[in-house]
């Protein structure tokens, strides 16, 4: 694949001729005429509607609870989950730049830029959580858990290796695989960690950390939507890239990803966290995998799992179901709409 030029004077102005990849755009942002309104709408949602600031959420109470009320198992899980989430969003900040260099639709480049900003904000949020809740020495250890923890290192490699292969060898096949990797990361890999935090919040623990996670979760839902639309549109525009061999790889990769996420979620919680156990983690991740595959038009991997075993999460993560915050008597001013259902 060839990177897009910064300015392509020989490019076409006609929006009808635009393509996600392998197009011939001038790369001038002529937004009076767009081909992919879903991309432009998501850009505006990510950039303007879903804006939030980590410092607006006070963390003092969480520091007290972390020090005095969390069990050793809860502390360990809290730290490991944050360490993994830091890695995931770090990968996204770097990799989205690489995707954008091969995208030939200006409105889609804008959407990816907005996502990149949000991923950077998430990374900052995790830093803010750590510096607010734990002492600086411990925070530094948490950042570097992947250097000592072999299971965490293995988790980091699942998606990172796929991204690195695309960067080393930017072929069309590796691009499609990296796009699926992005979709899996956004729609599957955050969720056992989110479920752990919501389990704590449901018990009245670490409520302000949970509020940060709720905003991040909402952002990730827009990212899932963005890459779902990218994949579906790529299928329409470049059907030759979605061969039977690629479909086989998609199922194999999802299976691999599910197994890795279940193993990680169970390793983190040690079956010792009230409200979440190994069976729930297994069924929840498989349920999500089925949901994400069917949203792309594929058959579910686990046809015997048809219901969300943790339905309470959907309601718990809602941000604006009332006029005030779920936990605080404070008006919600960050977003103008409730939980996004894509």
Give the key terms:
mainly alpha, 342 residues, disordered C terminus
Task: Describe the fold and architecture.
The protein has 342 residues and is mainly alpha-helical. 64% of the residues lie in helices and 0% in strands. The protein is built from 13 helices and no strands. Helix 1 (37-49) packs parallel to helix 4, helix 3 (72-100) runs antiparallel to helix 4 (106-133) and helix 3 packs antiparallel against helix 9 (191-202). The chain is globular and about 65 Å long. The two termini are 31 Å apart. Residues 321-342 have low confidence and may be disordered.
Q: Would you count the extended β strands for me?
A: 0
Rounded average pLDDT: 91
Q: Roughly what fraction of the amino acids lie in strands?
A: under 5%
Poorly predicted spans: 321-342
What shape does the CA trace take?
Answer: globular
Helix content range: 55-70%
Distance between the termini: 31 Å
Please compute the radius of gyration using only Cα atoms.
20 Å
Major sheet size, sense and barrel closure: none
- Tell me the structural class: mainly alpha
């Amino acid at each position: 694949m060839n990177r897009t030029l910064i300015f392509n004077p020989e490019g076409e102005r006609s929006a009808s001729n635009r393509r996600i990849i392998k197009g011939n755009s001038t790369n001038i942002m002529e937004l009076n005429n767009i081909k992919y309104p879903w991309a432009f709408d998501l850009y505006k949602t990510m950039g303007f509607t879903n804006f939030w600031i980590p410092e607006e959420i006070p963390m003092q109470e969480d520091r007290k609870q972390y020090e005095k009320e969390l069990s050793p198992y809860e502390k360990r899980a809290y730290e490991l989950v944050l360490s993994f989430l830091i890695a995931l969003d770090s990968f996204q900040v770097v990799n989205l730049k690489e995707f954008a260099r091969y995208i030939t639709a200006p409105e889609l480049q804008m959407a990816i830029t907005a996502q990149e900003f949000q991923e950077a904000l998430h990374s900052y949020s995790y830093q803010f959580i750590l510096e607010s809740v734990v002492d600086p020495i411990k925070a530094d250890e948490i950042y570097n858990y992947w250097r000592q923890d072999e299971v965490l290192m293995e988790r980091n490699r699942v998606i990172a290796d796929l991204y690195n292969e695309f960067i080393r060898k930017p072929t069309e096949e590796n691009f499609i695989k990296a796009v699926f990797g992005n979709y899996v990361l956004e729609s599957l890999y955050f969720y056992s960690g989110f479920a752990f935090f919501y389990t704590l919040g449901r018990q009245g623990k670490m409520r302000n950390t949970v509020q940060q996670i709720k905003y991040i979760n909402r952002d990730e839902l827009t990212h899932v939507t963005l890459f779902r639309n990218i994949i579906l549109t790529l299928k329409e525009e470049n059907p030759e890239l979605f061969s039977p061999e690629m479909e086989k790889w998609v199922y194999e990769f999802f299976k691999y990803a599910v197994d890795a996420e279940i193993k990680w979620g169970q390793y983190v919680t040690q079956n010792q966290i009230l409200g979440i156990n190994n069976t729930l983690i297994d069924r929840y991740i498989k349920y999500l995998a089925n949901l994400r595959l069917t949203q792309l038009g594929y058959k579910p991997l686990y046809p015997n799992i048809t219901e969300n075993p943790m339905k309470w999460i959907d309601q718990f993560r809602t941000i604006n179901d009332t006029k005030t915050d779920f936990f605080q008597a404070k008006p919600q001013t960050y977003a103008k709409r409730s939980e996004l259902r894509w």
